[in-house]
Design goal:
alpha/beta, Rossmann fold, four-stranded parallel beta sheet, 36% helix
């Protein structure tokens, strides 16, 4: 797996770190120029450095009279190049000064991508993977668990994914850091990291026909139905990357009638062979 150093004072870049770590890579964020200068020997051993340009100027050095924080990343880059001229550097910055951008775009082993109107998280990760040579065949599936109130089933599935299927730790939304995001922003960011989704449909709620108050049916939580629909659209219904795990008695959405569900009434382990077969098909 790859070693990825991210030098950026923006806390939101922890999302990128989390994504790489969830895929089994050794990724870390260095949050200041001062720390980066102290950690240079570690940084230059990475497979790639993701570098911001606009950061507070290091306190250990005199501030240039004209540029200052405007070129902090360039100072870090100069130090990196003195120790490792061939290390790939992915410059990801909001800088708009072409006096800085042009030398970066023409330099060897440097890729520049602007943060303004930048790519979605998934595309950003793909660009970095391409630079360091991580292909579909050498990366693990990153799973996401959609769940309701059945915590036992959720934890059994998490354990099965990690210890039996030997996939990286699955994403469970409430376990991820908020980083100042709204719930839907957090969900969208985590969804972008995911390549396979397990939707646990359990009878957590009761629904009723308004014309017949006695006609009550067990239903999955609303967040589960919403997230299931999102992933079916995001990853594609026929991709095989959205696995629907079903515990009756449960009323299923009528508009996906005919879609195959995996019955988990007897537990995750009992349904394990069917789950494994679906995973194998996705990997193939």
């Amino acid at each position: 797996m790859a070693s990825i150093a991210i030098i950026d004072d923006d806390l939101a870049m922890d999302m990128l770190v989390n994504s790489f770590c969830l895929h089994g890579h050794d990724a870390y964020r260095i949050g200041s120029a001062d720390e980066a200068l102290l950690e240079l020997d570690r940084i230059i051993t990475a497979d790639i450095v993701v570098l911001d340009i606009i950061m507070p100027w290091p306190s250990s050095r005199p501030v240039p009279s004209l540029s200052g924080a405007h070129t902090t990343g360039m100072e870090i880059l100069k130090e990196i190049r003195q120790k490792n001229a061939d290390l790939p550097v992915f410059v990801y910055s909001a800088i708009q000064d072409y006096a800085v951008i042009d030398p970066l775009t023409n330099a060897p082993n440097i890729t520049f991508t602007a943060k303004w109107n930048g790519p979605p998280l998934r595309d950003l990760i793909e660009r970095i993977y391409q630079i360091i040579g991580v292909t579909d065949g050498t990366r693990s599936l990153q799973s996401f668990i959609v769940h309701g109130h059945n915590d036992e089933m959720k934890l059994d599935l998490k354990n099965y994914i990690q210890n039996t299927l030997h996939l990286p730790e699955p994403i469970i939304l409430h376990e991820q850091p908020n980083l100042g995001r709204t719930l839907i922003q957090k969900f969208e960011d985590c969804a972008a990291m995911s390549s396979i989704v397990f939707v646990i449909l359990t009878p957590d709620d009761i629904g009723a026909n308004p014309d017949d108050p006695d006609d009550t049916k067990r239903r999955a939580r609303q967040n589960v139905i919403f997230e299931m629909g999102y992933f079916l659209g995001h990853l594609g219904r026929e991709s095989g990357r959205v696995l629907l795990l079903y515990k009756p008695p449960l009323e299923l959405p009528s508009d996906i009638s005919g879609v195959v569900y995996i019955n988990i009434s007897n537990g995750i382990d009992q349904a394990g062979e069917e789950i494994r077969r679906e995973i194998k098909n996705v990997r193939g």
